[in-house]
């Protein structure tokens, strides 16, 4: 800015062009500032489009978050979005076109399943939904126009573990891209697999404090360039203040995740020994043939109340104390929700029966409270 004439400006001109506060080279803030500016004046000495121009397209604060997420996930590049479902739906729309086919699984976050079932066909994109427990069907479901296989592990809400290697082997033999929604495992896990794309809801463990909605997709530079180009038109960019909160949340991410994994295992053990609980699922509870896929087990537990208790899942939620009925997971507070009401409404009775989703099943996400207090809260509602 050329401001030699500053002294002669009127008040409103001065207020709209405040003085720069330059830092001595080498004098840096320890924590990167939040760049709220929507626009940037480019330097004359470089091509404009190699620089920050407009925050919908790129912003130094969201870029720092993308770099952190790419780095910990072992991927070349990452793009952040204004929600996890935005990351999923816009990745699908960026990679698929009319006449293409994708394969996914019924054990999927409900809005993602609904997007595949109801929205993609309106754009002329076909789908097949299988079960993660019947991967022998996968190869047969591949068609000449199959472009993408998408899955979760662990799955929402009932924590099935999906055989990642089995999917990758079949997909890559047939030249099909694979995307995984790794939200339940968090961004530090499953990084050793050759997944083309890893998608996360950053709303959950990455931010970890329940005050931001965001998502990300990470992959090779080439694939991400394609998605980035398309997403410029979709416009679901993340706000820099939200990006900053996630960057801050990530500083304690590993501590939180490991602590929540330990506490949730304690709670899962308590529930599995309780006479009013029919079954419990938690990735750390029993030797699962795929448990090596996870270093840490995460905070989420699925379980079913015994009908002797004479409470539905919904009624049970309202008997609890500080554990409250709420959507989401991976936050600092322990929260619980009835899985049928939250995740089963679009499924048939037979699908729900096979997937163990009914009026007595619950999804519980363990927070950072003392596990003894969590257990005693559950214990009271279970009738001791
Ligand atoms: C929450 C969630 C999403 C969606 O993320 P939002 O940030 O809420 O849009 C996607 N996948 C899974 C597995 C989730 O739990």
Explained architecture:
- By secondary structure, the chain is an alpha/beta fold.
- Helices cover 34% and strands 15% of the residues.
- The protein has 13 helices and 12 strands.
- The chain has helices at 11-16, 60-72, 84-95, 110-119, 138-141, 164-173, 221-234, 240-251, 253-272, 313-319, 339-343, 349-355, 371-381; strands spanning 77-81, 101-105, 126-130, 146-152, 177-181, 197-201, 215-219, 277-281, 300-305, 324-325, 335-338, 361-365.
- The protein has a 7-stranded mixed β-sheet, with helices on both faces. A 5-stranded mixed β-sheet has the order 8-9-12-11-10.
- Helix 4 links the parallel strand 2 (101-105) and strand 3 (126-130).
- Helix 2 (60-72) packs parallel to helix 8 and helix 3 packs across helix 7.
- The termini are far apart.
- The structure holds pyridoxal-5'-phosphate.
Q: Given the structure, what is the number of helices?
A: 13
Oligomer: single chain
Overall body shape: globular
Structural class: alpha/beta
Q: How many strand elements? A: 12
> Which residue ranges are poorly predicted, with pLDDT under 50 across at least 5 consecutive positions?
none
Radius of gyration: 23 Å
Q: Beta-strand level of the residues, as a percent range?
A: 15-25%
Mean residue pLDDT: 96
Instruction: Report how far the terminal alpha carbons are from each other.
Output: 70 Å
Compounds present? pyridoxal-5'-phosphate
